[in-house]
Each structure stands twice: as C-alpha cells, then as structure tokens.
Design goal:
Pfam family, one: MksE
Strand order of the largest sheet: 3-5-4
Helix content: 55-70%
Largest sheet: 3 strands, antiparallel
Protein name: DUF4194 domain-containing protein
Number of strands: 5
Distance between the termini: 57 Å
Strand content: 5-15%
Length: 217
C-alpha cells in the first residue's frame, strides 16, 4: 500500500469515527475534515463504508455541515431518531432564548451562524449594563440544559457558554481568549426549527418568550 493511499484511508477512518460519534463537521469545527467531505471521491468512500452499517452522510446548511444519518429506517432506528428529536426539542426553548439574547445584546440584524465570533467580555458588559438583558440571562441560565444555580451574572454567562461548547454549538479556539466561534450545529438547529415550524405550525420564538416556570428546574 502506498503512503498516499494509507494517508487517505487513515483520514477517511478518522472522519467515519467522528461521524459515528455524532459529531457535526463544518469549516469551523474541523476544516480539514470539512474539505475532505466536500470532495466527492472522499465523501463517496465514507458513504460506501457507512452504507454497510445502515448509515449515510447527511448534510445541512446547503451542504456546509455534515453529520451521520440512517440509510433506512426500521423500528429500532425510528426509536433512536425519536429520542434524539425529543432531546433537541427539549433544548430548543433555552437555545432560542440564548440566541435572541445574543442577537439583541450585540445589536445584530441576524442570528448567529457558523463562523461568527462572539466576544464574551463585550457581550457580558452589554448584558450587565441592561437590566432586561440581565433578567433574560438569569432566566435562561436556570433551564435544565444549562443548570445554573448562581445569582451572579458572571457565573451564569460563563456556565452557559461552557455548556454550549460541550454541546458543540460553539468552539473556543484559544483558551487564553474569551472569543467563541459559532459552529455549523447552529445552522443545523435552524433547519430543525424551520422543519418544526412548517410541519406543526409552531412559533418557537413566541413559545420561548412565553415559556413557563414548569420548564425550569
């Protein structure tokens, strides 16, 4: 086996492993892997392997975010997907509230999308200077998704951002800096929201705004 062929196989194997672990691969999280999957021949090799175990390379955001899906759906696969979808739905209200807060506090016209930076220190200053934003942060930080029990806005926002990194919605490229980058998993989330809106007629932003105490811890 030539060195070049071996490199391709090793690279493909690493990609397959990430996909099977449930990773969302985009330019922000893994530029090398993203470029590989944008290449038709590499994606076909990954797809051929995944097809043997009833998996497929799925994509979102017009082909800029890759993740692993099922090739065919039987009863057991439907149960897994149903469980995953339920988890996403339970996380939607706190995530939407956080996205709305970031957009409003940052004065942005559009919600965060893959590759957009969030400067935590600047955002925190704006939130702490505005009572309404502080109240929004205190409320959303208490959702089960984040689980804050602190009354301190500094502790609240840092916990929220730590959890968002753990969940794959943000990355922090430099541990020395308080700069976070949005990942393609957020763009995937927007597609889920659109799907729910279209199929069930839900208005998730309105739902987030009227979230009741029972959704909190």
């Amino acid at each position: 086996m030539s060195d070049a062929t071996q490199t391709v196989l090793v690279g493909t194997g690493a990609l397959i492993e990430l996909l099977l672990k449930g990773e969302f691969i985009c330019r922000t999280t893994n530029e090398e892997g993203w470029r590989a999957l944008k290449n038709n021949s590499t994606r076909e090799r990954v797809e051929a392997y995944l097809n043997q175990i009833n998996r497929t390379v799925a994509s979102a955001a017009e082909g800029d975010v890759f993740f692993c899906g099922y090739l065919q759906l039987g009863d057991s696969e439907r149960k897994v997907i149903s469980s995953q979808f339920k988890d996403i739905c339970q996380a939607l209200i706190p995530l939407v509230e956080w996205l709305v807060l970031v957009q409003e506090a940052s004065g942005q016209d559009a919600p965060l999308s893959e590759g957009a930076p969030v400067r935590l220190t600047e955002l925190q200053s704006r939130i702490e200077d505005t009572p309404a934003f502080r109240e929004q942060l205190a409320k959303l930080s208490q959702y089960r998704l984040f689980g804050s029990t602190s009354t301190n806005s500094d502790a609240q926002i840092k916990l929220v951002f730590k959890r968002l990194v753990e969940l794959g919605y943000l990355v922090r490229p430099n541990a020395e800096k308080q700069i976070y980058i949005a990942t393609g998993k957020l763009d995937y989330l927007y597609e889920v929201i659109r799907f729910i809106d279209e199929t069930e007629g839900l208005s998730l932003e309105a739902q987030a705004e009227t979230a009741t105490q029972r959704d909190l811890i």
